[in-house]
């Protein structure tokens, strides 16, 4: 048996996942759209398979994964719902994906040819979604090459064009002019596809657009971050953060006023105080840039971290309290008790909460789930 390397724990509340997905799918259904739950990057750090199962139970009918390998892993685990993958390396063989009935994104004539060749090897037609670049300027076919791609896809007997799709750049800023600009380009691309004889489904809306732009729901919405309870838009929404990151106290000690803590002695005790040692650091997902700027929830209250976050540990200033060894330490959670949140971490260090939660997929951080069925 391999030793347990874990020093911290992520607890994922699948009840929260289901609640959030029902809210998002409810918005979509009002527009007549179905819902694709995005579980890429191991479910944004929450665990792709448990999240996928919870999302399907709550009303999703599609699942989205970035890579073909991610999608195949879900299929191999028994997921029978429609699966979609959209970004792979140039040398990836699409044959297993076609054989596993996974929908594949196509952004170029070369990619179309590779998928068609895979379909011929698999002995079945490939289901493809043609991606148009409407202004994000990442993946997707540029508008000048779109008519040729559409024509080639229509003529290719080895593929079935299931859908047309794109991705929004600024949907998390409601009212940003790029949203309507991209929507207009998307409509133009759709009309070109229809003129070529295709009748594809359309999907454009991410989490933010699912919440704020019902006119862009079309046939299918693709919520990601909102399903995990993290709100991408300024308006209030009844979303419940699903992830709690916690560790434990392994040592307490008293130090006198004037003693300093951790590397660089950046923090000096202004009074006699009790320190609690937590065996979790930046190797486990706590950004070093939070040094001197973070609290934890310990023994019923928020307490500041003293000094620099280290690779394997951090130190909490507990004043005259002395939490027992083994006491639970909440590094971030839903915020309902006053504990820090992933959004608070992100705002403090100038990033987004996506980066915080996806960073929790680490060898020394075990996962546990609430609400598994």
TrEMBL record:
Catalytic activity field: L-alanine = D-alanine
Class of the enzyme per the UniProt entry, highest EC level: isomerase
Pfam families tied to this protein: Ala_racemase_C, Ala_racemase_N
Binding-site positions, substrate: 138, 311
Sequence positions bearing N6-(pyridoxal phosphate)lysine: 40
Active-site annotation: 40 (proton acceptor), 263 (proton acceptor)
Annotated pathway: Amino-acid biosynthesis; D-alanine biosynthesis; D-alanine from L-alanine: step 1/1
Family the entry assigns: Belongs to the alanine racemase family.
MF (Gene Ontology): alanine racemase activity
HAMAP family named in the record: Ala_racemase
NCBIfam families membership: alr
Reported cofactor(s): pyridoxal 5'-phosphate
Record EC number: 5.1.1.1
Its job: Catalyzes the interconversion of L-alanine and D-alanine. May also act on other amino acids.
Protein name as annotated: Alanine racemase
Entry-linked InterPro entries: Ala_racemase, Ala_racemase/Decarboxylase_C, Ala_racemase_C, Ala_racemase_N, Ala_racemase_pyridoxalP-BS, PLP-binding_barrel
Start and end residues of each Alanine racemase C-terminal domain: 242-370
Keywords: Isomerase, Pyridoxal phosphate
Listed SMART domains: Ala_racemase_C (SM01005)
